[in-house]
Amino acid sequence: MTTALPAPGTYLVDPAGSTVRFTTTHLWGLGTVRGSLAVTGGRITVAADRVEAVGTVAAASFDTGNGARDGAVRSARYLDAEAHPEITLRAAGPPTGPVPGELTVRGRTAPVELAVVDVQPDGDVLVVRLTTTVDRYAHGLTAQKGMTGRHLQLELTARATRA
Length: 163
Known about the structure:
This protein is mainly beta. The chain is 5% helix and 55% strand.
């Protein structure tokens, strides 16, 4: 992990250079599901003793490579991507982890704790990699208990350029 902190200022997240990947289980924990969500935007503000960030992903971009599953998760039964098109993550805390945050899914906000895995400042560009565990029940997503994993392991990589 790079420990050098980026220069203070505001950095705008580049959706094309940023990713959200997840892993969860299904079939009572016997199978593993991997997938991704598309980052749509975000901002990272760096101060000497504090970092604040907000990022959004498109709920309709949920993708595991299984069309039937992906359609079911995007539907009103789970993410309700039509009524709630954005998933939002907000975090603020010390420049090294863990960083407390809030994840809003389907209009419901719940706390998360982000582990800072890597920070790579390079001039006006900043790449940050974070991980967290999300409890879908905290967002009211309780359909198919047992068949669908309750927890998702998320890895977020944000590439941002100084504004």
